[in-house]
Design brief:
Layout lengths: L21 E7 L9 E12 L8 E2 L10 E2 L4 E10 L1 E8 L6 H11 L10 E5 L5 E2 L6 H6 L8 H20 L2 E11 L4 E3 L2 H5 L21 E9 L4 E8 L17 H17 L4 E6 L5 E3 L8 H22 L9 E9 L5 E2 L2 E2 L8 H5 L37 H8 L8 E9 L2 E5 L3 E2 L1 H14 L5 E5 L8 E2 L2 H4 L4 H4 L7 H16 L4 E3 L3 E7 L15 E9 L8 E8 L12 E7 L11 E2 L1 E2 L2 E2 L7 E8 L7 E8 L7 E7 L8 E2 L5
Parallel strand pairs: 6-7, 12-13, 15-23, 19-21, 20-22
Antiparallel strand pairs: 1-24, 2-5, 2-9, 3-8, 4-31, 5-6, 9-11, 10-14, 11-12, 15-18, 16-17, 18-19, 25-26, 26-32, 27-28, 27-33, 29-30, 31-32, 33-34
Length: 667
């Protein structure tokens, strides 16, 4: 990992060595900067790599996950910056489980001196991939239970802060006069409702059938897109908001992966480049996905299914992108509102009161329908649809409190749970993007948007994005909660959570009609159990070299065919994993006639074959016993090109003072 050299005084730096047991740090919130009004629209975009080294726990599947041992698709943070009227925003779209209050506050502090973006305009959104690392969240509970191992890693978090901040600063520095259009289109048959029973119990859902086919229409089908071009007509950026869980990749998968979102973004970016001749910064964030899963064929979770679904959504997204070309405008106004709801100070909004203490439900332990916990998922009260009958009038309603309402507080202290709920609205023209820190069900999202549009005459359309600026569990409607499926069991603050959030979102939307809003805590403090996972440099290693010959493995029903080759190198901590590591080169002609000048980067379906592609996998296989610092690695090239009279070779790209190395040719 490259040395961490932030341009500001980071509260995380004293904790990076990992010698302390807890990470205690604070950040004072800068006041809202009152900006001069500008006419027209300015926009900038940036794409930064946030792929970590092997060894970090993966978040999303809890104890069923594994430490990452490399990557099958790189993890990215895409930044879209917009400046118009008196507003300046940066929407950060991360290949992570969720946003984080630590990231949002520290990024806002780091960019303050070099940009005109205040905290209210920094939105940390996420794709909610379950194949990315955790250990950067703002609460002990989710740093402990979202991943297969626990603890907050300040070095990894500092890396994310620095990378994201650099992206925001670059986007602002490169902003140009621009035009944009916001639109939506339905996407069907690639997603399904995984908790149909609770969904049809909503009083607002008229079709109460629970037939097998019904689950494919009981979803939020709206693919939302923001298209941004320069005034000269070149594509600059595209942002997608869509509602689907990042669970196309199995919990048994050992590599970091952007899941179906990696294929969605890759497909859309490639089609934009082919049709326009320009490469745009393309990213995505979650919609109302809590009860929506990818429509994976039974037993086939993995890269092939993630590709099928993600590429299919990406193709639909490109059709929408094309249609939006005739709606571009440079007169859009930008505004942002941000509020931190401190539940230790105020748990009531418009007559809706949340419980003082959060509670984990038994249904959470059984797992979601597509990733159930063996045995437990069949046994009441863990089994989905086993609500409590007696005592259901308590603050936690029909929830069976795991371990009982007396024992759970002793084992899970209240301060370890999310106690500050960030609510954010970014308004682009007449469209409001409502950022909530929870996984929001389809129907809960509809009620939040209804509250926003009813409260704000300036909002014609509202869109909810989940897991924004923190990860705080789930939110269902009261009717869904009463059924106690996984989503209801994971709604920590009881059956009135949706009504509470809807009220707050409506209030914030109404206030935003009067101008920019920032209602944040004056000082934000964290006290987190600490554990260092980011590997340290080990120093000198062996000569960098490929070992053996490349081998080919035939495709199966579950996996593409691939070429593989191993190499020796330094330890994972001595390589920059967020920079290029491997590419594939090709040369036409016979072996005898080939020369060094003939080689060029291979292309497949018009895309370069580098480790920027989800067709290249790089993994760490471990240290080599009996050597001084030697580690073994493997590269795989999936779905390779087969052309006569064409040879290929792997190339280890120069990285962290390690020179470029080429393999023997194959094919």
């Amino acid at each position: 990992m490259a040395p961490i050299l932030p341009t500001w005084t980071s509260p995380l730096l004293p904790l990076v060595d990992g010698t302390a047991k807890r990470a205690r740090f604070s950040n004072r919130t800068n006041p809202l900067t009152q900006l001069e009004r500008v006419e027209g629209l300015l926009a900038g975009a940036a794409d930064v790599d946030i792929t970590p080294p092997p060894g970090l726990p993966k978040a999303g599947y809890s104890s069923n996950a594994h430490d990452g041992r490399g990557f099958r698709s790189r993890l990215r943070a895409r930044v879209l910056h917009l400046r118009s009227a008196t507003g300046s925003i940066a929407i950060v779209q991360c290949d992570l489980l969720g946003g984080s209050s630590v990231l949002q506050h520290l990024v806002a502090a780091q960019i303050a001196a070099e940009t005109d973006i205040s905290l209210n305009g920094v939105m940390i959104g996420a794709t909610h991939t379950h194949a990315g690392p955790g250990q950067f969240l703002g609460t002990d509970f989710y740093n402990r239970f979202a991943s297969n191992r626990s603890g907050f890693d300040p070095a990894w978090t500092q890396f994310l802060v620095d990378r994201i901040s650099a992206g925001v600063i670059a986007a602002v520095a490169n902003r140009v006069p621009a035009q944009l259009a916001f639109g939506h289109a339905p996407v069907w048959e690639l997603t399904r409702n995984r908790s149909l029973d609770p969904h049809v119990h909503n009083h607002s859902v008229e079709d109460k059938r629970q037939e097998q086919q019904r689950k494919y229409v009981a979803v939020n089908p709206d693919l939302e897109m923001l298209r941004v071009d320069t005034l000269s007509g070149d594509p600059l950026a595209a942002m997608v908001i869509f509602s689907v869980h990042g669970t196309g990749i199995s919990q048994r998968f050992l590599e970091y992966h952007g899941d179906l979102w990696a294929y969605l973004v890759d497909e859309l970016a490639h089609r934009i480049e082919v049709s326009s001749g320009c490469r745009a910064v393309v990213g995505a964030i979650e919609g109302t996905h809590a009860d929506v899963a990818p429509a994976i064929r039974p037993g086939q979770a993995g890269p092939l299914e993630a590709r099928r679904i993600g590429s299919g959504i990406g193709a639909e997204a490109h059709q929408l992108w094309e249609r939006l070309g005739s709606e571009l405008s440079s007169t859009t106004e930008i505004s942002a509102g941000f509020r931190e709801v401190d539940l230790d100070r105020d748990r009531t909004c418009e007559g809706v009161e949340l419980p003082d203490r959060p509670a984990v439900g038994a249904a959470l332990v059984a797992g979601a329908i597509e990733n159930t916990t063996p045995v437990l998922w069949r046994v009441p009260p863990f089994r989905a649809g086993s609500p409590k009958r007696l005592g259901a009038t308590s603050e936690q309603g029909a929830k069976w409190v795991l371990g009982s309402r007396w024992l759970q507080p002793a084992l899970l202290p209240r301060h370890g749970f999310p106690r500050v709920l960030p609510i954010q609205i970014v308004r682009i023209g007449s469209t409001s993007i409502v950022g909530l820190p929870l996984e929001v069900t389809v129907e809960a999202g509809r009620r939040v948007t209804q509250s926003v549009t009813s409260a704000s005459p300036s909002t014609e359309r509202a869109i909810v994005t989940s897991v924004c600026n923190e990860y705080s569990g789930y939110v269902t409607t009261a009717e869904e909660y009463s059924r106690q499926f996984y989503e209801g069991g994971h709604t920590l603050y009881g059956p009135l959570t949706e009504a509470f959030l809807s009220a707050h979102a409506g209030q914030l939307a109404a206030e935003l009609d009067g101008g920019q809003v920032q209602d944040a805590l004056p000082t934000r403090s964290w006290d987190l159990a600490l554990h260092r996972y980011l590997p340290l440099p080990a120093g000198a290693g062996p000569v960098r070299e490929f070992t053996g010959a490349a081998t080919f493995t035939d495709p199966t029903a579950a996996e593409d065919g691939h070429w593989s080759q191993e190499w020796l190198d330094v330890s994972p901590g001595d390589l920059n994993w967020h920079e290029p590591l491997v590419r594939v080169e090709e040369s036409e002609g016979s072996v005898l006639s080939g020369s060094a000048e003939d080689w060029d980067t291979a292309r497949h379906h018009g895309r370069p074959v580098t480790d920027e592609s989800p067709d290249i996998e790089v993994v760490h296989l471990g240290a080599v016993e009996g050597t001084t610092g030697a580690h073994r690695y493997r590269v795989r090239w999936y779905d390779p090109i087969h052309r006569s009279n064409c040879r290929h070779r792997f190339v280890l790209v120069a990285n962290r003072a390690r020179a470029e190395v080429v393999s023997a040719s194959f094919d």
